[in-house]
Amino acid sequence: MSDPDVSLRILALRSTFSTIEAVLNPAALRADIASLSEQATQPDLWGDVENAQQITSALSHRQSELTQIEEVGARLADLDVLVEMANEEADDASAGEVLQELKELEAELSQMEIQTLLDGEFDASPAIITIRAGAGGVDAADFAEMLLRMYVRWAESHKFSARVLDTSYAEEAGIKSATIQVDGPYAFGTLSVEAGTHRLVRMSPFNSAGKRQTSFAAVEVVPLMEESTVIDIPEGDMRVDVFRSSGPGGQSVNTTDSAVRITHLPSGIVVSCQNEKSQIQNRAAALRVLKSRLLLVAKEEEAAKKKEIAGTITASWGDQMRSYVLAPYQMVKDLRSEYEVNNPSAVFDGDIDGFLQAGIRWRKST
Description:
Blueprint: H1 4-24, H2 26-40, H3 49-89, H4 92-117, E1 127-133, H5 137-157, E2 161-169, E3 175-183, H6 187-191, E4 196-203, E5 212-223, E6 238-243, E7 259-264, E8 270-273, H7 279-302, E9 320-325, E10 331-334, E11 340-341, H8 344-348, H9 353-365
Parallel strand pairs: 4-9
Antiparallel strand pairs: 1-3, 1-5, 2-3, 4-5, 6-7, 7-8, 9-10, 10-11
Helix pairs in contact: 1-3, 1-4, 2-3, 3-4, 4-9
């Protein structure tokens, strides 16, 4: 196992890790964890549920970051021992073990390095993703549901929390729209590059002639603001409608009017929530998402960067940012970063880290 390429790869990994460690600052993370842990043990913590949730969420995020840094550091330290053992064994199995560990560490460090590029004001916040079916009829509604599943599976694979806040089902198949909340370290910063128009090309399963169909879906990503963020919405600026939650095909899944839709009259922004157990909980969740969107718009206007984070997305020809091609060949390509893969099935199953990393690097370079 005296391959000079292996030695160079190990040196490169350690150099990258040193840079990441300096930026993420484990000492500062430990101090934050100690402070948050002390707050989390206060007997009156859950007297204020919202504040308690913020503290426990922040504590979980910091612990996750520190654990990752410490585990990767330990694995890097063990590499020399692993190489030495491979040299002693001098067999293919031992050499393969070293190469596999190198490959896994390179992937993990690449992902950690991306985190150091996420220095925007809201990058550490949870993300609110809204998916809307665009041009393409039933195929577009089906495509929107495929994207919803893709983001949920991605979140699950990273042990992030993914809550579906609202779903509007299409009549024949798929969804008209859906809103999900993804909560994990740097969720918004990571997922913000997904905003835009996504295009699907395939042999339509809804077309009896089996013709190739192009359909579109729009993805909007905004940060979920902290409860402490102050933004007042006059009652006269909102119209609140209540209705019964429904499932696919209009089948009732709730016998009370617990779902809530809030329309912000000045801006026309509409937010719905139907997945909580009570009308009060749905109203609170919808209001928080509405405030997040309004505050983001205000920030963008102040900075003269309106639409930079969550702009107008038409979900039709001419403005797509990513293409998913299932026929006549297999490919998913991001049209901004030029990153592409030839395994759409894996992508729709949540394997989008390569696109996220390429998108973040592309954005940083522009």
